[in-house]
Each structure stands twice: as C-alpha cells, then as structure tokens.
Write a structure and sequence with these properties.
Blueprint lengths: L2 H12 L26 H17 L6 H10 L8 H12 L2 E5 L5 H9 L2 E5 L16 H8 L6 H20 L2 H13 L2 E4 L2 E4 L2 H4 L4 H7 L4 E4 L2 H6 L10 E5 L2 H8 L4 H7 L29
Parallel strand pairs: 1-2, 3-6, 5-6
Antiparallel strand pairs: 3-4
C-alpha cells in the first residue's frame, strides 16, 4: 500500500490527517534508515529520562523474562542503535529489527512479523509528550516490545501471529486478531510465582498503567481464553477495563498457533463484548498478588 493510500485509510478510520514520521524515503515495505547519528544530545537525554523513570517501576511489576532481557540489551544511556541490537537479537532468536517511519499498513506489519522482522519507529516523542503520546514512538516500540523478542517462546508466538495476520486479511478476521494483539502484546498480564506481572508493551512503557493494571481495584483481571479475548472490545484512550492473564508464554503460543478459519466464522455469529464485561462463571482476579490457583 502506497503511503498516500495508507494515510487516507487512517483518516477514514480515525479522522487523523497524517501519521508522524518521514515516509518520503521508505521502501515498499516501509523500511527506512534509522540515521542514528542524527539524534541530538537533547533527544538522547530525553531517552535516558524516559528509560530511568520506567526502569524504576519494573521490579515487582514486569515479568522476569522481560526484566532479564532488558538488562542484557543495555540501552539505558541513549537511543539504541537498531542495527547493533538487531545483530544480537538475530543470534538469540533469529529476529531482526527494521526501522520504520511510524505506523505501517496491516499487511506490511504482518509480513514483517512473519519473516521475523520487528518494525521499530525511528522518531522520539518531544519533552512535552513525556507523560503521554498518541502514536507509538521509538521508546514505546523498543522499550516495550524488543526485550521479549529475545525470549524464544515469545518470539516464536509473534512470528505465528504475523503469519496468522496475513491469512486474516483474506478471511475477514482482522478485527478479531487486533483484539488478540491488544490484549496480549500490548496489555497482557502473565502468572508468576509471586503474583501477576505485566508483559504487554503498552503497560511496560506507561508510567501510570504499569501500577494501575496490577494494584487498582477497578479493572477486571480474567484468565486468558482465546474466543473471549477476540470478542472483547478495547479502549485506546484510557486505561484498560479488562486485562487477560496467561499462565506462561507457552500457553500463548499453543493457544494462538492453530488455524483460526473456523473460529473467525464462529466469531462473526457472536456479538462483541464490552471492554468492561464480566461473563457468568468468570472470576475477577481483583488483587495483583492473588494466586491464579485460588480463583476457583
């Protein structure tokens, strides 16, 4: 999809005029050069502030695999060079990072994931956007997503998601798959021996939601069940009303790898569920440190 067509499709969906980022030099698959040496000292300083703020919040909130791999990346001192990290990532799980100007079309995104390439936006938010940004920037994409790409099981799941996304485009399943991505890759929680932990990038890169999702009494925390997740609407402009909890990344891989063709057909016959719904028989894990084994 050419950029002008892509921009028009976004405007139809959201009223946005254009996404941020320079698309003028993008290739057909929307890859650009990062131009790491162009980042200013002020931008590197802003990255350090963002990184330091989030890193302080991770203990007791982020899942162990994320914390372990973030430390190995060693990106605390400034905006990371994607090419250098990509080499280390390829040695670990066969994935690479590709620089993109910003949002990309669904088909392009899925194709990258299916080929074990993760798109990372190249621009960084401004100081005025320190606490909140509308579009994902390099801090969200890198800090939130990249560490778990070093986890072999998680990385395998994301590749299968990309393959499934390409198929969903031909089956009318994109809305259902978007909900799955939202409630896992962006806002997922996982069981640990010490309670619930966050693994979704939207949580891990957010100063407020990282605490809210685990400690506030307001949201529902429900065991992950594929069909339930794919029926559930979500909020893009507020903290989530519901978080879905997996046992581990192997469950995520096992539950989302099978062919979704028949599931899409079934989902099209069912009504969507509100973001704050709690169905009969579901248990709300109301406390962050509640054991999933005690939820009945």
């Amino acid at each position: 999809m050419k950029p002008v067509v892509f921009f028009n499709s976004l405007a139809e969906k959201s009223g946005a005029v254009m996404p941020r980022g320079d698309y003028s030099t993008a290739s057909d698959d929307y890859v650009v050069a990062q131009q790491w040496d162009v980042y200013t000292a002020e931008q590197h300083a802003l990255w350090r502030r963002l990184y330091q703020r989030q890193a302080k919040l991770l203990p007791g909130r982020a899942c162990d695999s994320y914390v372990e791999h973030l430390a190995h990346i060693d990106a605390a001192e400034g905006i990371p060079n994607l090419a250098a990290v990509s080499e280390a990532l390829f040695r670990a799980t066969g994935w690479r990072l590709v620089a993109v100007p910003g949002l990309v079309p669904d088909k392009v995104f899925f194709a990258h994931l299916a080929a074990r390439r993760f798109p990372v936006t190249v621009w960084l938010r401004t100081p005025e956007e320190f606490d909140y940004i509308v579009e994902p920037d390099i801090f969200h994409d890198f800090f939130g997503h990249v560490p778990l790409l070093f986890d072999p099981v998680f990385a395998a799941h994301l590749q299968e998601y990309g393959k499934g996304g390409l198929k969903a485009l031909t089956l009318g399943g994109l809305d259902f798959l978007a909900r799955l991505y939202w409630y896992t890759m962006e806002f997922g929680l996982v069981k640990s021996s010490k309670g619930l932990r966050a693994y979704g990038a939207g949580i891990l890169s957010s100063v407020g939601e990282l605490d809210y999702c685990l400690n506030d009494q307001a949201p529902h925390r429900i065991r992950f069940e594929l069909e339930r997740v794919m029926r559930t609407r979500y909020k893009i402009d507020a903290y989530q009303k519901t978080y879905f909890v997996i046992d581990d990344f192997q469950q995520l891989f096992d539950d989302t790898t099978p062919d979704f063709t028949l599931l899409y057909q079934r989902l099209k016959t069912l009504s969507a569920l509100s973001a704050d719904s709690l169905l009969p028989g579901e248990t709300n894990l109301s406390l962050a440190n509640a054991s999933l084994d005690d939820d009945g």
